[in-house]
Amino acid sequence: MIKSHLNQEEVTKSFVGAALLFLTANFMTTRVSGQAPANTDTTQFATTAATEQRIISRVDTIYLAPAKEAKTPWYKTLSIRGYAQVRYNRLLETNPQLKCDQCDKSLGAGNGFFIRRARIVFSGNVHERLFVYIQPDFASSPGGTALNFVQLRDAYFDLALDAAKEFRIRVGQSKIPFGFENMQSSSNRLALDRSDAINSAFANERDLGLMFYWAPSEIRERFEELTSSGLKGSGDYGVFGIGVFNGQTSNKSDANDQLHTAVRLAYPLKLTNGQFIEPGIQAYTGKYVVTPDQLSSGVSLGTEQQIEEGFTDRRVAASLVIYPQPLGFQAEYNIGEGPEFDPETMSIKVKSLHGGYAQTMYRMKVGDHVLIPFAKVQYYDGGKKHERDATSHKVYETEVGAEWQPFKNFELVADYSIADRTTKTASNLYNRQHGSRLRLQAQFNF
């Protein structure tokens, strides 16, 4: 009997423990689900559950809210790129006295390997309406035997007047909108040097001033395609460009308180077969001052007015480019008047000038390589205002060469030139040199 009673007590305790465990589990489940048990005040529990739900909702809202996008610092929007060119000009040379300082200071006697350019470009949109472009050159040569000085080439800022950036104002030192070849980057040009006829307008193609450019978005994309696709485009200088600038060429201050004015109109047409053709017309006018450091002893400057205000300096030029797809053609011609040395009077006078060039090229792909053979002829008769005594020039030159691109970061150009150049200055009233040479250039893009 005692044993039976104990068994009954153990059974009762087990039953009570199981019941308590069940009630506890049921209570916890009810608290989590938010439902009130049958023997609890439903209204009170509903109020408590609603309060808990509001708390959870607030927490969820804060947690799920998208984080505010951090503004990118302006210096992280800038890109860095550049290129370098190394030349050797004296292979098969027949006349070491045949030179052209504006073309390439390493031409002729006393020269060997030469770093023609070593440039780094810092550019980018620091604001949706502001574009920055700064380009120093680490291989500038001030003259003589001094080489590889750092000089500022470009430092300009484009302010977009509309959201699509079709209307832009450019402030700073930049290229003057005159001539296709002048606008074209040296890294894109086939012939090693720009033509005397067009490039004689502005040494280094640049000056300090203010420009206005306009081009529809579609045409701006077309300008970009013509350079990025390897078709040797000039870059985006607008369909229409107009501006004012000092007129003394790059890295020189104004000398007469009078600004030059330039205007250019160019439009890249795209035919139904995909062929690009770009005609253009441009002009500039102003007064150029021949400063004392540009004069030799015994050379006069003409009238008092010309000494103070400068010499008439104006040109108009026409351009035509048929892009190499695969056969291409490029030609420009300009006429005008400007300061030029006169050997008969040992003075500088305003004289007429004219000249241009024509070039044909053929772009082909050989596997992954790009090969572009070309031929170019040029002629110029006129002065170069930025040279000593506004040197008088007469130039005939023919070039035949090819550019080889095994990959986009490296290009090799071989250029055989035959030239006849005559210059006149106070130190040499008649200096005629003619000859030929094979020139090589390695270009590294990075």
Write the SSE topology:
Elements: H1 2-33, H2 42-64, E1 79-91, E2 114-127, E3 130-140, E4 149-160, E5 167-175, H3 180-183, H4 196-199, E6 206-214, H5 217-228, E7 240-245, E8 260-266, E9 269-270, E10 276-288, H6 304-309, E11 311-322, E12 327-342, E13 347-362, E14 364-366, E15 369-383, E16 392-407, E17 410-424, E18 431-445
Antiparallel strand pairs: 1-2, 1-18, 2-3, 3-4, 4-5, 5-6, 6-7, 7-8, 8-10, 9-10, 10-11, 11-12, 12-13, 13-15, 14-15, 15-16, 16-17, 17-18
How would you concisely characterize the structure shown here?
The protein has 446 residues and is of the alpha+beta class.
Tell me about this structure:
It comes from Pontibacter rugosus. Pfam families: Porin_O_P (PF07396). This is Porin. The protein has about 450 residues and is an alpha+beta fold. Helix content is about 20%, strand content about 45%. It is built from 6 helices and 18 strands. It has helices at about 1-35, 40-65, 180-185, 195-200, 215-230, 305-310; strands spanning about 80-90, 115-125, 130-140, 150-160, 165-175, 205-215, 240-245, 260-265, 270, 275-290, 310-320, 325-340, 345-360, 365, 370-385, 390-405, 410-425, 430-445. A 16-stranded antiparallel β-barrel has the order 1-2-3-4-5-6-7-8-10-11-12-13-15-16-17-18. β12 (about 325-340) and β13 (about 345-360) form a beta hairpin. The longest helix has about 30 residues, at about 1-35. The protein is globular and about 70 Å long. It starts with a helix and ends with a strand.
